[in-house]
Amino acid sequence: MARVLVVDDDATVADVVIAYLERAGIATERATDGVAALAAAEASALDAVVLDLMLPGLDGIEVLHRLRTARPTVPVIMLTARGEEDDRLVGLEAGADDYIVKPFSPRELVLRVQAVLRRTGAGQPVMLQHGGLSLDPVSHRAWRDGRELQLTMREFELLRWFLSHPGAVHDRETILREVWGWEVGDLSTVTVHVRRLREKIEPDPARPCLLVTVFGVGYRWDGGG
């Protein structure tokens, strides 16, 4: 799975970017200033960076210069409120691979990130495996202990979400937003699909050990561990 560093001191913008990237199956890290961004780039295996131009402390251009020295092959997409041609040119001349001006379409940003990942060969879908489950995002097939599962599209996406986030607890609101793409909706939709998915993947759906309920909070993928 590709990993993208999102660098923005605006928590609202960063939350939106991260939500859309993760919904597209891209793992993310977050940094809120230039120093943290450079530290994350040094410590992590990153496939791309979404970098805001206006940052506290080190600005985006200086961060970009240093990234190009330390990680010259990692693609960088500049994300900024500055729309003037000179600012765009400065970012591109400093080594940015692409440039998006706020306000932006989150879906367009995801497409641009996916485009730079394809160019570098990063982020190609890989087989997800956990707790006897295997899922192939390319062929859209899944197996339990070698036996192919007959999943609906939504069950497949729900299983992919949990396999991509093992050990983390997610409430139904988060699952509805990330898997269905709905900001508002009937939370029982999640409950019903979790029950149906359990019927297909659990050794004993009445006593789930893979996709477990955390009472009062939500659901967690334990993978039988």
Describe it for me?
Helix 2 (34-43) packs parallel to helix 3 (60-70) and helix 6 (153-164) crosses helix 7. Helix content is 41%, strand content 21%. The model has no long low-confidence stretch (mean pLDDT 86). Strand 7 (133-136) and strand 8 form a beta hairpin. The longest helix has 15 residues, at 106-120. The protein starts with a strand and ends with a strand. The protein is built from 8 helices and 12 strands. The protein has a 5-stranded parallel sheet with strand order 2-1-3-4-5, with helices on both faces. The chain has a 4-stranded antiparallel sheet with strand order 6-7-8-9, covered by helices on one side. It is α/β, with parallel strands linked by helices and 225 residues long. The chain folds into 2 domains: 3-117, Rossmann fold; 128-221, Orthogonal Bundle (Arc Repressor Mutant, subunit A), CATH 1.10.10.
Give the DSSP E fraction (strand runs of 2 or more residues).
15-25%
The class by helix and strand makeup works out as alpha/beta
The helix-strand sequence is: EHEHEHEHEHEEEEHEHHEE
Choose one word for the global shape.
Answer: elongated
> Count the helices. How many?
8
- What is the number of beta strands? 12
CATH class of the largest domain: Alpha Beta
Global mean pLDDT: 86
CATH superfamily of the largest domain: Response regulator
The largest sheet has its strands arranged as 2-1-3-4-5
What is the number of domains?
A: 2
Question: What is the helix content?
Answer: 40-55%
* CATH topology tier name of the largest domain: Rossmann fold
* Shape-level CATH architecture of the largest domain: 3-Layer(aba) Sandwich
